[in-house]
Amino acid sequence: MTEFALSAQLREESGRRASRRMRRGERLPAVVYGGGEPAQSISLEHREVAKLIEDERAFSHIISLKTDGAAQDVVIRDLQMHPYKPRILHVDLQRVKAGQQILVHVPLHFVGEAECVGVRLGGGQLHHILVEVEVSAPADRLPEFIEVDVAKLDKGQTLHLSDLQLPAGVTMPALAHGDDKAVVNVSAPRGAAEEAPTEEGAA
User: 177: how many CB neighbours lie within 10 A of its CB?
Assistant: First the structure.
């Protein structure tokens, strides 16, 4: 497994003014909470966080957070972005321990698209309805992604959450609540459902 790490500094100042000064200095405010310990207000280097999240696996991996020489394991719980600039405004990090069951969103990786029966032979169009799913898994066994094989998907067919193959120990809360969302489907070719013109007035 790839190791992900961040370096943090404890911060004493809080509030909007302090946060604005921090961001002007290319750092961003963040908070660490959970694990039965008090929440900590910290600051992170914006460039370091921006580089980290370029890898989608960072959102479903344990991150080693080093603060004043001490390290703790965390996961990204929330990321606040600027509404129109490529800037991170705030990060929420949750402490985790090996074996602890946690919820994370993991990306879906679609495979077999070039061989998809409904597209290649049926002339249909493949539609990705979901690009990520929420899973529950032990913190030390978080999947980096969930693979979705669409090679045998025919036109008019849909794959749902219940059709996905999950690693051992990984579950999807949505299914426990009866919410079997559609993940991907193949629509019929445009115009295929149109009825043939009637021959009114034919002898």
Answer: 8
Could you give all domains of the chain from N- to C-terminal order, each with its CATH number? 4-97 (2.40.240.10), 102-187 (2.170.120.20)
Q: Which residues pair with 76 in a beta bridge?
A: 93
Cβ atoms 15, 23 nearer than 8 A: no
Q: Edge-to-edge strand order for the sheet containing 125-128?
A: 125-128, 182-187, 158-160
Asked if residues 65 and 84 have their Cβ atoms less than 8 Å apart, the reply is no
CA atoms within 13 A on the CB side of 163: 15
Enter the pTM of the model. Answer: 0.79
Cα separation, 77 vs 56, in Å, equals: 14
Q: How would you class 169 by CB atoms within 10 Å of its CB: exposed for 0-12, middle for 13-18, buried for 19 or more?
A: exposed
> Is residue 201 over pLDDT 50?
no
Q: Answer for the pair 185, 158: CB distance below 8 angstroms, yes or no.
A: yes
3-state SS, one letter per residue, for 87-149: CEEEEEEEECCCCCEEEEEEEEEEECCCCCHHHHCCCCEEEECCCEEEEEEEHHHCCCCEEEE
Residue-wise pLDDT for 97-108, tens only, equals: 988 999 999 999
Per-residue pLDDT at 196:
44
Q: What percent of the chain has pLDDT over 70?
A: 88
8 Å CB contact between 187 and 162 = no
Which amino acid would we find at residue 117? V
